[in-house]
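Database export, one record per block. Field names are fixed; values are copied verbatim from the stored entry.
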Amino acid sequence: MQIFVDADACPVVHIVEEVAQKYGVAVTLLCDTNHVLRSEYSKVIVVGAGADAVDYKLISICHRGDIVVSQDYGVAAMALGKGAYAIHQSGKWYTDDNIDQMLMERHLRKKARRSSSKNHLKGPRKRTEEDDNRFMESFEKLIRKAMNL
């Protein structure tokens, strides 16, 4: 089992590494050439800056039983299709039971944005310590599940 992180602007990389190190699990961080990542623990793979280049590389190297950390529902769906586990940076697990609904909601939100004359959207709210704690707890549970502990 390995952990793969869609690491472009991912706010939980340090938590992933901390928990993975505790369980002795290898981590690979994937980013594009627009982001510079360095890690003492993880392997870092830098791919070209093309649209979805990181996503396709991540899916091409993950396998059944691996864990994928991504905020992208499409990446999560492909990971689940390969038999991998997937988790959002919020700590929410992507599953076969919830991914279709999440993809549909994403599609409807995108459609609504395109039809709206408002082009300026607020970004996500500032990440809190509680968000980090929630992710850490959920991520550790997922590792334990993947390791059958």
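Remark 1: The mean pLDDT is 90.
Remark 2: The two ends are 13 Å apart (CA to CA).
End of record.
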